Structure prediction request, 229 residues.
Amino acid sequence: MQIDYYHPANPGKVLAFNPEDLDGKKAGQGRAGEFADVSFTVRAGEIVGLAGLVGGWGYTAPPLQYKYRALGVPLVFVLMGPLMVVGSYFAVTGAWSTEALILSVPVGLLVAAILHGNEWRDISEDTRAGIVTLSSRIGREWAHYGYVALVLGAYITLGLSVAFALLPPATLVAILSLPFLAQVVRSAELGASGQARAIAMIDLQTARLHLAFGSLLVLGVLLSGVLRA
Prediction:
């Protein structure tokens, strides 16, 4: 008896499988009935994928619920910065990249700033609801300092990386997003001075900054590739 099936990567190619070939010398068997080449080794890429799955699920789901344990901001930085960028690079190329890791840091800082801005704005509501966030844990003043450190940190990281030749100079095109940075810093300073309305949309403003910075950063990476060619 022979079973025909289609190759998963090439549907036009028909493969044949004959159960009679399972005679102990084929299909990865050593002696009859004993599989010798079966491996349950977990590869690095699978670990990254599993970490992302658990991290995304545990954001609000029990038993982790790390959003409510003042761990949302740091873990979002890791998950949507290094883990997402480096993991995507690995999925596409099959290799690890120090440059991808460095590029992921400013991206992760800005994603963390989106969440942190939201938590800073909602300190009163979260406290009444019994939700413990990083902002409610450290207070309004330090939440303000933390927000500014996150958004400025993205630009500082980029500048230092180029200065130390860790990233190509073309990535500095991302500084064209400075008008968006100026907007969020101004809103943050007004909010810190007691004008709560100024930070009512700070998460949305930070998301726009992230979009502008990230898009320009990708453009810089593409430009550097063209210039090297």
Remarks:
- The two ends are 55 Å apart (CA to CA).
